[in-house]
Every structure is written in structure tokens, then in C-alpha cells.
Amino acid sequence: MTGKDTAYDYSYDPRTPVVAEAVPSTDPDSYYDKDEQRPSDCAIMAGCGLAGWVVCGPFLAIIAALGGKYAADRNQGPIGDSVRAVGKIAAAAGKKAQEERLFCKIKAAIRSLFSKDDCNHCAKQK
Questions:
Q1: Rounded CA separation 90/45 (Å)
Q2: Where do the domains of the chain lie?
């Protein structure tokens, strides 16, 4: 092996110029959207309450809902941010359900279970 043979040369030799280091921004809140609306207290409590219900039942649901509202109002750290994110998710789900008229569809489906007027299957068997 000669000094000019690069097929077997495993040493580190930079082939491209070194890029200068990136300088972080001095404003830590610059990546947040300023026009972003804060979720409502009801959305925060519904989202945290639902999460508490799934994890441990009704008692923790009440505690999680009240604690989530408190954390969203008082805490500006990562806990407050995560609780507000849960509230945003719950608010978005509520808006989507309202757009799709989900409550009316569920109500119609339950009503159709108990009414015999809309049942074509029962009329064919007579």
C-alpha cells in the first residue's frame, strides 16, 4: 500500500470546508406563533378529565380536570404547555364534531335502534 492509494485509506481527511457553527436565537419564544389562541378552560378541563378518566376512573378525572385548569392558568413551563396542548386537541375535536353534526348523528342512530317505523327488516319478515 502506497501513500497515494485512497482505496484502503481509512483516515479522516475532510474533503469539504468546515461549516461555521450556528448561533442560537436570543429570543426563546420566537418560534411560538403569536396569533395562536389559547384554548378555553372548558376544553382544557374536558381533555384533562378524559385523560384522567381513562387512566384511573372518575375520581382522578375530577382531580385531573381541576389540576389541568390550574396548571394552564398558573404554570408557564412545560407542564402548562402540555396541558394547553391537551386543551387545543380537545377544542379541535369539539369543533370537528360540531362541523360534522356528530351529536345529531348519534342521537338519530340511538333513536333508530328503538323505533320500529324505520326498520325495513322487520317489515319484510311479516
A1: 9
A2: 39-115
